[in-house]
Write a structure and sequence with these properties.
four-stranded parallel sheet, binds iron/sulfur cluster
Length: about 140
């Protein structure tokens, strides 16, 4: 079993109340069992919710509120769920402050990407779980 950001599978869990279905991932899920999760919902944030970005060591939303604790709680919950299921690999939605892998927005809410990982990605990688973005999955 492989873990996967729920929004890629069509779950409407994004900040704007929408999903981000990826047809290749949905096709892939017909052959491989995918365990879906949304770290931000698991961390206790509502949907919809204000947009958020990583700024330095914290995560702020577009109203300037520090929501780091919610994303950290969600990442810990994801790690717990993956370990319970012995899942060693996950596909995470690129650029998100939780799920981003390799690039995240720079904290200015201007659409600028910088190198970095989301909060969940960092925690999973530190715990030996392989993380790929939805784009990288098919380049392996
Ligand atoms: S936290 Fe991850 S799973 Fe949830 S909406 Fe954002 S990118 Fe998708």
């Amino acid at each position: 079993m492989i873990g996967c950001s729920a929004c890629l599978l069509g779950v409407a869990c994004r900040y704007d109340g929408a999903s981000k279905p990826d047809n290749k991932i949905i096709e892939f899920s017909k052959k491989e069992e995918l365990f879906r999760f949304c770290p931000e919902q698991l961390g206790g944030l509502p949907t919809p919710r204000p947009r958020s970005e990583i700024r330095g060591d914290i995560v702020i939303n577009e109203h300037g509120e520090d929501i780091t604790a919610f994303l950290e709680k969600g990442s810990e919950k994801v790690l717990e769920l993956l370990l319970q299921r012995n899942i060693k690999k996950v596909i995470l939605k690129q650029n998100s402050p939780s799920c981003g892998c390799g690039n995240v927005y720079d904290g200015t809410f201007t659409g600028k990407l910088i190198p970095g990982n989301g909060i969940t990605t960092e925690l999973l990688k530190r715990n030996g779980i392989k993380v790929v973005s939805e784009k990288e999955l098919f380049q392996e």
